[in-house]
Amino acid sequence: MRECYRFTVSGRVQGVFFRQSTADTATRLGLDGWVRNLPDGRVEGIAAGSPEALAELRGWLDRGPPAARVDAVEWMAEDGQPEGGFIVHRHG
What we know:
There is one protein chain. Helix content is 24%, strand content 38%. By secondary structure, the protein is an alpha+beta fold. It is globular and about 35 Å long. The mean pLDDT is 95.
């Protein structure tokens, strides 16, 4: 069973390899989706896959990579079902 979630992460999450680290983690977990920076300093993404893998990604997003400071994670169910791996969008 596949589920899909949209997430936004706030804090010190740009300029600290957050997008690439998220993509690496999601790929390791077998998730599909994407991640990008937002103009307001947050990071946004979509992730789809097994509930177990999504739960692991959610836990990782709460911490982020070592240089990040995560203040909040919004995690909302989404209707879309991306496929084809996990993509880092270079520009918002």
